[in-house]
Amino acid sequence: MDAPTRTHDAPAVAQPPTAVVPEWVHGLFPWRAVVLPWLLSRALSAVVVAVAGSSDGRLRFGGFFAWDGGWYEHIARFGYGAPPPDGVQTPWPFFPLLPGIVRGFDELGIPGRGATVLLNHLVFLVALAGVYRLARRHTSAPASALAVWAIALFPGSFVFSMLYPSAIFLAGSVWAFLLVEDRHDVAASVLVVVVAMARPNGLVVAVALVFAVRSLPRAVLVAGPAVVAVGVWCALCWHWTGDPVVFFTAKSSWGEVTLGNLLFPIADYGAIVHFALGVSALAAVVAERRRLPAPWLVLTGVYLLPPLVLGVIGLGRYTNECFPPFVAFGNLLARLPAQLRALLLTASAAGLVGCAIAVLRHDFVP
Fold this sequence. Notes:
By secondary structure, this protein is mainly alpha-helical. The chain has helices spanning 23-28, 31-52, 68-78, 97-107, 112-138, 141-152, 166-181, 185-198, 203-213, 216-241, 246-249, 269-287, 294-310, 315-320, 324-334, 338-361.
């Protein structure tokens, strides 16, 4: 009798592994270009802010809520209060979006200020993803990745880890430009409203986007809702205080350092740092102006030039909220040798550490 024939199982067909991360997420948050600089920069910022804001040998977390964060928290708890008396600093210069978020978390039973700081970190990740995607459309892949590193490690970027609206402003503005390029004007208009309610000068994004759309109907659609939102806020301010632009007039009590008194009679070293950061960003944009879209130049000009002249304090922070200079930095860095690029980014990270310590330990204004 013949031996039984052994039957061999057909070889199994290799199945592709199930993707742990959806493809659209992977495309939105590339690891090396976006997630890695976000992780490293936020870890560095968080450590420095926590340590610099601590005292008595005990780790404290008040540094995350320092400076303007205290005003936003006050508004979330108590509102804006009575009309501001002359010469007294009040909450009125601050717009309502961020305190509204803090209050919203509190109403849900979640500690509002801590939750908002964590939200800022996530929003900053979304902002960096937008910077990379938008830069990738207008420049090379290496330059786009370097733009992300430049904005993540810029000396003022520690503020993205604090109770400030900077991350919201950056994310809203960069994604509004992306959506306008893709002709998603309604979605862009929503983001412009968010930006306009985050900062008193948020309407400059609407102005720049008008130059981007080059069409009256599209301009009305993209910028109109933000103008209406700010108009409603002005009407409320008028009803409450008798001054529709109280957020502007109240700033006179804050002792601005202008370009005219930057050095004399007594040098304000914090203001000089702000001035230097703003000028470096403007210089990069001027150097790369032929490689950047014209609406980006408009955004840079209308956002950075007025404080450069009228109120230097805060200019370093405003610079970090404005994406075009960092695309310019990315272009410039991409043309340098790798060792020099690494050295410059390391120096910028050291500047981040130094600025955070100066703000939280030595009373420099961020």
